[in-house]
Design goal:
Elements lengths: L1 H25 L5 H24 L9 H18 L5 H22 L6 H18 L9 H21 L5 H22 L11 H25 L5 H7 L2 H14 L5 H18 L5
Helix pairs in contact: 1-4, 1-8, 1-10, 2-3, 2-7, 2-8, 3-6, 3-7, 4-5, 4-6, 4-10, 4-11, 5-11
């Protein structure tokens, strides 16, 4: 029961990243680049503190660190930019689907064995994402913002693939956040400010800090704690709940609605991912 509770809490934290980001940007209290930069810095501070407390120090080097930092930056700023227009649940669905497809492609390139069910699942998930993003064919969303979230999904997928080789996931994530934070500030300054210009009100800053320190920093640390106790298939299926929780959070806290086309496309994406990760027992 304790493991179930901690897993549910972690998935809720992951979904809350989408809700908090959308809440801040939809309310106009902060611009996307500033939100991404503050979230990154807050996450670096929290994860650094956790590493010092739990590991007794920080280890900033290591193989794959450059890829990890770059992939984290792509994810963080693509994620923030997308939520200037996307609903929380829809953005989480696009992100999650692209992450799974990216990891599937990474497995292929690495020469991993790929059973037919994974090909079928990846094809269904890709079809659902294409329906979501194709102009005029599915739910009417902003294509640039949808593609921005897809880019964030590629970034997080590459980040996850790189993290598989890390001996200590907590220290590796802390190092990636700490090294990415100063680069992220430069990226944030270089990105276009958007129609509202660069601005950061008290509410937007508070939401960015909450997303960085709590739902990202503590959320990732908690996930690494419960992950060893979960079967790999169970861990993958658990993450299927993240878009669902994000949809519910968007409806409750942001007044977002869920149309029939969005529901059907979502079912296609999540169904495809489920087929890919579930082991069928004979």
């Amino acid at each position: 029961m304790r493991l179930f509770f901690l897993t549910a809490l972690t998935m809720t934290a992951f979904a809350a990243n989408s809700v908090l980001n959308r809440m801040a940007l939809a309310g106009g209290s902060i611009d996307a680049a500033s939100f991404g930069s503050i979230r990154l810095i807050a996450g670096a501070v929290m994860l650094g503190a956790l590493s010092l407390a739990l590991r007794g120090g920080l280890r900033l080097g290591g193989a794959g660190r450059v890829m990890g930092v770059l992939a984290l930056l792509v994810y963080m700023y693509g994620f923030s930019a997308a939520y200037t227009a996307l609903d929380a649940g829809l953005g989480a669905l696009i992100l999650f689907g692209v992450v799974q497809i990216t990891m599937f492609a990474g497995g292929l390139l690495a020469g991993e064995a790929t059973p037919p069910r994974r090909w079928i699942g990846a094809a269904l998930a890709f079809a659902g994402l294409a329906w979501l993003l194709w102009p005029g064919a599915g739910p009417q969303i902003s294509v640039p913002h949808g593609l921005s979230m897809a880019l964030a999904g590629v970034g997080w997928g590459l980040y996850s693939l790189t993290g598989r080789r890390e001996p200590d996931a907590l220290q590796a994530t802390a190092a990636n956040f700490i090294l990415a934070a100063p680069l992220g500030v430069l990226v944030g300054l270089a990105l276009p400010a958007g129609a509202g210009g660069t601005h950061a009100g008290a509410e937007g800053i508070a939401l960015a800090v909450l997303a960085g320190a709590v739902t990202s920093g503590l959320g990732y640390a908690l996930w690494y704690r419960v992950l060893p106790g979960l079967d790999s298939a169970v861990a993958a299926v658990a993450q299927l709940t993240v878009p669902v929780i994000a949809v519910a959070g968007g409806m409750i806290f942001l007044g977002e609605s869920l149309g029939l086309q969005t529901l059907l496309a979502s079912a296609l994406v999540l169904g495809g991912v489920a087929i890919s990760v579930l082991r069928l027992r004979g």
